[in-house]
């Protein structure tokens, strides 16, 4: 039976956190975000995989790899039409295979790679699985940011692999660089008529409707960060520490958006944004 897909090729479609303690991770995110978790399945490598949901819609996965006790980390998966072709494109453009492709029959084929700066990211060829079913709502995934020491190299790599363009966005109070996939806004507008006009009416910068992520130049190593929408970033940061997590940065306010960078008890780093209530 065919499945109506929520994400076109070239768009981040799923996130998961690799953790040495899937039970502890489920407890942390369940308390922090109100996620409900399924009973879990055995992952292809023999580890444990559970899926978190909000109001019946899948939001993220938690995986405990077999025999590994490394610190936790969030992973972003980009949908592709052909995983084998994507693997070739990654390697030919200076990336490398981190974890070879695994097949979950009837659901998806996935693999993990590193980009030229060492940032780990995933690709997923979807079948029965549709990706994250609830996004951009309180306590769900909102965006991803590539933090890298060389944005020029990143722009060439991800442009070649996924067709992304690095586009500067001016919000008045600050500027940022978006990853844009040409035509993505048209896809969203077809599914949600008025989407593009709503961005225009709301004062979004040109190209924002095609945005699939953010690009930020930093010193040191490269990584992909995951961001979540919450009702109150400051309160979420406080609650995270009560649950055994850590506040790495913030809470702070940028243009009316409260944000904080947090880590769960296993060390997996993530950001929360409240898009309205001032952090304090």
UniProtKB/TrEMBL annotation:
Pfam families: Glyoxalase, Glyoxalase_6. Residues 11-126, 140-275 form the VOC domain. InterPro entries: Anthracycline_SecMetBiosynth, Glyas_Bleomycin-R_OHBP_Dase, Glyas_Fos-R_dOase_dom, Glyoxalase_6, VOC_core. PROSITE patterns: VOC. This is VOC domain-containing protein. It comes from Rhodococcus triatomae.
């Amino acid at each position: 039976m065919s499945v109506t897909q929520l994400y076109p090729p070239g768009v981040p479609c799923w996130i998961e956190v690799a953790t040495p303690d899937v039970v502890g991770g489920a407890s942390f995110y369940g308390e922090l975000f109100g996620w409900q978790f399924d009973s879990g399945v055995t992952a292809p490598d023999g580890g444990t995989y559970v899926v978190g949901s909000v109001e019946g819609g899948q939001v993220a996965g938690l995986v405990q790899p077999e025999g590994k006790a490394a610190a936790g980390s969030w992973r972003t998966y980009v949908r592709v039409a052909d995983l084998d072709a994507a693997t070739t494109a990654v390697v030919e453009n200076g990336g490398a295979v981190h974890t070879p492709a695994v097949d979950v029959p009837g659901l998806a084929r996935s693999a993990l790679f590193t980009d030229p700066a060492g940032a780990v990211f995933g690709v997923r060829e979807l079948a029965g699985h549709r990706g994250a079913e609830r996004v951009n709502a309180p306590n769900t995934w909102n965006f991803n940011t590539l933090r890298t020491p060389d944005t020029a190299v990143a722009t060439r790599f991800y442009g070649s692999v996924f067709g992304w363009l690095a586009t500067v966005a001016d919000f008045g109070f600050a500027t940022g660089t978006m990853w844009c996939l040409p035509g993505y806004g048209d896809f969203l507008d077809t599914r949600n008529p008025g989407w593009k006009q709503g961005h225009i009416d709301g004062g979004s910068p040109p190209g924002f409707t095609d945005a699939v992520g953010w690009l930020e130049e930093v010193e040191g190593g490269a990584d992909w960060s995951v961001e979540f929408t919450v009702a109150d970033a400051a309160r979420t940061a406080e609650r995270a520490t009560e649950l055994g997590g850590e506040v790495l940065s913030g809470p702070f306010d940028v243009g009316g958006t409260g944000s904080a960078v947090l880590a769960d008890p296993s060390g997996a780093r993530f950001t929360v944004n409240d898009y309205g209530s001032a952090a304090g």
